[in-house]
């Protein structure tokens, strides 16, 4: 049976490069996550390979404490929210 997991935004990266680095660190620590483009970020990522519109980072609600710890270890300040990433 499929178990639904609530997504929580933990950080807004200023660009695609930082978002990808964060997702890599999360993944290497067993935390699946995804990013959502802000504004025209998706188009800018396609045309220029990077965007300065920002990227929101989401993880499952149960992974938030460990994800926040990892972000802080990277020198970043997490901003966990309770809103869904749908």
Automatic annotation (TrEMBL):
Protein name (Swiss-Prot/TrEMBL): DUF2007 domain-containing protein
Start and end residues of each DUF2007 domain: 8-74
Pfam family, one: DUF2007
Superkingdom of the organism of origin: Bacteria
Gene3D superfamilies according to UniProt: Hypothetical protein rpa1041 (3.30.70.1530)
């Amino acid at each position: 049976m499929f178990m639904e997991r609530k997504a929580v935004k933990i950080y807004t990266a200023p660009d695609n490069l930082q978002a990808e680095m964060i997702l890599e660190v999360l993944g290497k620590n067993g935390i699946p996550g995804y990013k959502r483009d802000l504004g025209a970020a998706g188009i800018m990522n396609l045309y220029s390979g990077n965007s300065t519109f920002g990227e929101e980072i989401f993880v499952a609600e149960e992974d938030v404490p460990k994800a926040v710890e990892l972000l802080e270890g990277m020198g970043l300040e997490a901003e966990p929210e309770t809103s869904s990433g749908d």
